[in-house]
Design brief:
One of its GO terms (molecular function) is UDP-glucose 6-dehydrogenase activity. This protein is of the alpha/beta class and 455 residues long. The protein contains 19 helices and 13 strands. It folds into three domains: 215 residues, Rossmann fold (3-Layer(aba) Sandwich), CATH 3.40.50.720; 80 residues, N-(1-d-carboxylethyl)-l-norvaline Dehydrogenase, domain 2, CATH 1.10.1040.10; 137 residues, 3-Layer(aba) Sandwich (Rossmann fold), CATH 3.40.50. The protein is elongated, with a radius of gyration of 24 Å. The structure holds 1,4-dihydronicotinamide adenine dinucleotide and uridine-5'-diphosphate-glucuronic acid.
Length: 455
């Protein structure tokens, strides 16, 4: 099929390159000329495992452009995957979506195009997109649209750092549509994924025995709410683990044993119970805020989601409190942070806990050293005020420091020569913000091991 993808960020690029890998002809359109130039040269503007390899494998079926008139007119399917960042009141800013929908509407000219919204948007937005497309189409063509397009919602559930894996091997595909023709197009578009009939890339084999992938077909509003409800549930699952973690610390229980013990109950499940500094990234914060804002429009409150957000903020402050308890004073203390990205395997620092924690420590007079094995280059561009604190080598974070905090559990950090690094520190204090280091081993190496749950 001929596919157009609007927006070449984490979602758009991953969708485009995966569909091209499966044999579709894909044109990606983005307003950012620099991104388009990089992609046209075969290079990914984002750090995402296997992206470069998949881009190379799919190159002959992919085109990158800033020009909608190349991308839209011949497409059977147009995905919109532009950013929807938070406004100060918690609602998402839909200006990028509006502009993308206007441009698509202007250039639609085929017999039937399914316009699929993949951006995370408030309930009702797909109808709003439909009206923008319609107005734009009618202005340009000077006639009413007559079934040339239909809007569907196809929310995205990929995780950064595992984006391609989650796209090729999803748990489910959700499609919201009230048009049987659109559903048929989407079924055909995703057939290889739904039936898992494609030959997997050698570098990304199918995980275990994955059977057919369920397609959840809903009305538009339900598809939109599924996306918010899924993110809110995952966010509150993590916050729940962190809240129990706090209690575990006080009563002398081990939170890792507790989460294992509850996670083996298949009704609960083991994933997203990893305690620690909590969630960051571009979506959990934004989407929980949007859900609460949407509910408020209907005079409805969301106390559970609100509490999940509060617990998450508390975890970041706890890092500072824990260091203060240990070091008694932060002014003049040299503190290293390992990891800047909001999670491993990405260079994304949107709402990254490390940035908040670094600023809180600097505000209290600490001398902070920061390190990330992958995100440092992007950090220099995006956080100029913090650049003087950036360490080139991981040893610089430990050198003469009073404490080091593990903020992002990059595998590179787990494999460090911890014995040698202890000898560089003024006082070998390690705060394991992700519960991923071995307390016994580090204690034997001379560290004072701290976690956010007091063990
Ligand atoms: N990042 C993630 O892991 C996930 C994101 N989402 C949702 O998907 C949407 C996109 O997120 P990301 O891919 O992270 O965003 P992003 O910020 O990485 O990428 C958005 C891209 O759209 C381009 N763009 C903006 N306006 C445009 C226009 N009018 N025409 C053409 N291109 C335009 C931007 O230049 C940018 O390259 C958001 O609504 C987000 O909430 C959903 C699931 C996962
Ligand atoms: O809508 C989105 O953007 C996406 O948001 C999350 O994906 P992502 O933010 O990329 O990454 P996650 O793996 O969910 O991690 C989010 C944050 O939670 C933290 N986390 C995760 C799991 C856990 O057990 N504990 C925990 O603290 C991570 O460190 C990270 O900061 C969801 O997992 C995706 O399904 C969704 O599509």
């Amino acid at each position: 099929m001929r596919v157009c993808v609007v927006g070449t960020g984490y979602v758009g690029l991953t969708t485009g390159v995966s569909l091209a890998f499966l044999g579709h002809d894909v044109t990606c359109v983005d307003l950012d000329q620099a991104k388009v130039d990089l992609l046209a040269g075969g290079r990914s503007p984002i750090y995402e495992p296997h992206m470069d390899a998949l881009l190379a494998d799919s190159a002959e079926r992919m085109t990158f452009t800033t020009d909608y008139s190349i991308a839209v007119p011949d497409a059977d399917v147009v995905f919109i995957a532009v950013q929807t960042p938070s406004l100060p009141d918690g609602n998402p800013d839909l200006k990028y979506l509006r502009s993308a929908a206007e441009s698509v509407g202007k250039h639609i000219s085929g017999e039937f195009t399914v316009v699929i919204n993949k951006s995370t948007v408030p309930i009702g937005s797909s109808n709003w997109v439909d009206s923008i497309l319609r107005e734009s189409f009618e202005r340009t063509h000077e006639r009413r649209s007559d079934g040339e397009f239909s809007v569907a919602s196809n929310p995205e559930f990929l995780r950064q750092g595992a984006a391609i894996q989650d796209t090729l091997y999803p748990d489910r595909i959700v499609v919201g549509s009230d048009n049987p023709r659109s559903l048929d197009v989407l079924n055909r578009l995703y057939r290889e994924i739904l039936n898992q009939t494609f030959t997997p890339p050698t570098y990304l084999p199918r995980p275990g025995e994955l059977g057919a992938v369920p397609m959840v077909s809903t009305d538009l509003a339900s598809a939109e709410l599924i996306k918010y409800a899924a993110n809110a549930f995952l966010a509150l699952k993590i916050s729940f683990a962190n809240e129990i973690g706090q209690l575990a610390g006080k009563v002398g229980a081990d939170i890792s044993q507790v989460t294992r013990g509850i996670g083996l109950d298949t009704r609960i499940g083991p994933r997203f119970l990893q305690p620690g500094i909590g969630w960051g990234g571009s979506c959990f914060g934004k989407d929980t805020a949007a859900l609460i804002a949407t509910a408020a429009d209907y005079h409805h409150s969301m106390p559970i989601v609100t509490a999940a957000r509060e617990v998450n903020q508390l975890q970041r402050r706890l890092v500072v409190d824990r260091l203060l308890d240990e070091l008694r004073i932060l002014k003049g203390r040299r503190i290293g942070l390992l990891g800047l990205a909001f999670k491993p395997n990405t260079d994304d620092m949107r709402d990254a806990p490390a940035l908040d924690i670094a600023r809180m420590l600097i505000d209290r007079g600490a001398r902070v050293r920061l390190h990330d094995p992958v995100a440092a280059e992007r950090f220099r561009r995006e956080q100029p005020d913090l650049v003087p604190h950036l360490a080139d080598e991981v040893e610089d974070v430990f050198d003469d420091s009073d404490a080091v905090v593990l903020v992002t559990e990059w595998s590179q950090y787990l494999d460090l020569d911890w014995a040698k690094l202890a000898s560089l520190m003024r006082t070998p204090v390690i705060l394991d913000g992700r519960h991923c280091l071995d307390p016994q081993r580090l204690t034997k190496l001379g560290y004072r091991y701290l976690s956010l749950t007091g063990r």
